[in-house]
Amino acid sequence: MTDRLGLSVVVPTFDGCEHVLRLLRALEEQTLPRDEFEVVVVVDGSEDGTKEALEAFDAGFRLRSLFQENRGRSAARNAGIAAAAGDVVVFVDDDIEPAPTFLAVLSAAHREGKHVAAVGAVHCRADEHTPPFARYWGRRFDDFTTRLIGRSSPLDWSETYSGALAVRRSDLLAVGGFQETFDGYGLEDFELALRLRDHGLGFELFPDAVAYHHYDKDFGTAAREAESRGRSAVIFAALHPHEDADFDPKDVTPPSVARRLVRYVLPRMSIMLPFLPGLVIRGVSVFERVSPRPLSFSYTLGLEYFYLLGKQQARRDGRLTAKERLP
User: What is the pTM of this model?
Assistant: First the structure.
């Protein structure tokens, strides 16, 4: 029996050509021997030249590309799982840049025989050219990663993320992979982690499995993703009605007038005033240009509004029926 453990790096991408190429170049610099891993890029309906760029990329490792109509990240990752030849699947988002030892650390984690889902330590990169919202988001995520690194206890399933996650392929197949009912943005990784927990897996952060997130989205894009995440929260609750999972923004004491407005008034007003979400995005963009001091507060409230708006829309539309629930 060989002591080598094959890794399959699965990368879902949609219109992320430049990100994917940067990721592939970073994978060329891995210290893990190139015959111990492969890369499977699943192009989820991209129309930005990703397909052609992958076909032209001269990789020093085994690189395979799969192409499908746009079906969402869950479906793309499941296609990668199905095609993976490695014993361990490493999910990496296309805007992640792994440090040279990233794969070696995750490989060693599984070679030690631990029955775990191994999570890499993702840090956000920013410089003087990084837009204001991307700096805000990067600080939030770095604070989250720092808290996890500073803790001695294992991760909870709700603290995992699929942007840098390594799981044995047999465990992924045993739980059925990602739930494709999540066809938008958000929570599909938590939902998978919940089922992996019930399957008996623990979750462990490996601080030396360093990767960098090149986050370049503006507030408008992030707002619509928060809206989709709100819809995903309703899907999650329908799939797991007996699980005490709360993804809502946490209350502050005492809640400010602005937060009360965002929580209880604006989402309801948006039903009668469909132009309101666009107005909120434009309002935040005005703050970005003229008044940087309250930006963090504006971003936080804006994202809360869109998340709650998504939940409201999903409930009104009957987003998930009982027939779609997991057994």
Answer: 0.89
Contact 213, 259 (CB under 8 A): no
Domain(s) labelled CATH 3.90.550.10 in the chain stretch across 7-217
What's the fold here for domain 7-217?
A: Spore Coat Polysaccharide Biosynthesis Protein SpsA; Chain A (3.90.550)
Residues 6+ positions from 189 with CB-CB distance below 8 Å: 160, 161, 162, 165
pLDDT 10s digit of each residue in the chain, 327 long? 344 459 999 999 999 899 999 999 999 999 999 999 999 999 998 888 999 999 999 998 999 999 999 999 999 999 999 999 999 999 999 999 999 999 999 999 988 777 889 999 999 988 778 888 999 999 999 999 999 999 878 899 999 998 999 999 999 999 999 999 988 888 999 999 999 999 999 999 999 999 999 988 899 999 999 999 999 999 999 999 988 877 877 765 556 777 778 877 888 888 888 888 898 898 888 888 776 666 888 898 899 999 999 999 888 876 554 334 443
Torsion sign, CA atoms 25, 28, 30, 34: positive
